UniProtKB/TrEMBL annotation:
Keywords: Transferase. This is Glycosyl transferase-like protein. The lineage of its organism: Bacteria, Candidatus Moduliflexota, Candidatus Moduliflexia, Candidatus Moduliflexales, Candidatus Moduliflexaceae. It comes from the Bacteria. SUPFAM superfamilies: UDP-Glycosyltransferase/glycogen phosphorylase. GO terms for molecular function: transferase activity. Pfam families: Glyco_trans_1_4.
Amino acid sequence: MMNILQVSLADIEGGAEKIAWTLHHSYCARGHDSWLAVGRKKTNAPNILRIPQETYRSVWERFWETFSRVWYPHRNRHRMFARLYWVCFELGSGHLRDGLHGLENFNFPATHHVLELPPRTPEILHCHNLHGNYFDLRELPFLSHRAPMVLTLHDAWMVSGHCAHSFDCERWKIGCGNCPDLKSYPGLVRDATAENWQRKRNIYAHSHLYIATPCQWLLEKVQQSILAQSTVMTRVIPYGINLKQFYPGDKRSVREKLGLPINADILLFAANGIRHNVFKDFRTLRAAILRVAEHVQQRPIIFVALGESAPREQIGQVQMMFVPFRYDAEVVAQHYQAADMYVHAARADTFPNTVLEALACGTPVIATAVGGIPEQIRHAKTGLLVPPGEPNALSEAILSMLQDNVRLNEMGKLAADDARQRFDMVRMTDNYLDWYQEISESRRANAG
C-alpha cells in the first residue's frame, strides 16, 4: 500500500480534473492512502484537501482575494466583470504589476507546503495541470527533491510561454516571443512570452520530473521542449474511463428517458461552453450541419450540443438542441447511448475524454484529426477522422455514415470493444500504480 498525493486545479471541473478524480477514487478503492489537493474544492468527498493560499497571504491580499471570489461567477457575462475579477485576483495574489507586464502568475505561497497537507508524508506526489492560478511553478525544484514527482501533462502549457495549445505556432521550441495570439488560454495582456519561457526553462533545469502524457503526440512535444532537460523517465498512459458507467445501452429506452424522438437520426457533441470554447470549433461544426441539412430531406436529424444553454434552432430537417453541461455521469452516458454518432470538431485538443466516453457507449465518432485524437479513433473502423477547419469534409463524413446503417452499427460494436481493451480506468490505474512502484524502487536503489 502506498501514500499518494495528487495535485489538481479542482476536484470536479474539466477533463484533466476528471482523470485526477478517477485515479484518486480508484486508489482509495484499492486500499491505498490517497489524497487530492486542489486549488478549488467543489465537493465534500473524503480526502479532498483545499490548498489554503489565504493562510500565507497578507491581510491586504486576502481582502482583494475575497472580492475576486465575488466576481468569479460573473466573469463570463460581460467584459467589464472579467476585468474586475482579473484586477481583484491579481491584487489578491500580489501579482498585478507583473500581470500588467505579461508575466505568468506563480504567486501561490501555499504550494511550498503542499506535502504537509495530508496526515502522512506522501511517497508519491502526482501533479496534473499546474496552470489555472493555484500553483507556484517555482516550487518544482523543492518539491521534486522532497518526493518523487509524477507530472501528467493534459496540454502543452508547461512547454510554452503562456498558451495551453500553440496551434500552428512552433516558437515554443526556440524561446517564444512575438506571440501570434496572446488571447489564447491562458491569456496575457502583454507579450512577455519569451521571459515566461526562459523562467520556466530555469525552473526545470533544477527539477527532477517523471512525465506522463495520455498520447504519443504530446510526449513528442515534451521531448522537443524545455521540459526534456528535467525528465527522469517518461510514460504514455492513455486516459481510462469507468466502463460501468459508459457502455452501450438501448437507444429506444434512453431516448424515451431524455425525451428524444425514436425515429430521428441523432448527432451529439459535448464540451463546456460549446459555442465559445476557443479550442473547439463550433463554427466549422455549424457550417457542416448546414450542409447536411441541404442534403437530407426525408428523415429528421437532431443535433444535440451538450454543454451550454441556448435556444433551439431549426435548419431545414435539422434541429439544433442545446443542453446544459451535466456532471452526472449516468445522464451524460445516456446522451451518448441515445446518439447515432458523436461529432467532435476541435481546433486543438489533447486526448478528449468525451471521445473515449462515446466510443465506450458504442457510438461511432467523427472527429478532426488534431492532437492525440488520431490515437483514440481507429479510422474507418471505430469512426472517421477529417481535417480540421473543413466543414465540407466534416459534412461528407456525417452524410456517409447516415446513409449506411449497417456500417454505422458495425463501427459502434468495434468502438465499444476497442474502448474496453484500451481505455478502461482499471488499466489506467494499474499502469500508474505499477509506475509508482518502479519509481520508488529505482529511487531506493539509487539511494542505497
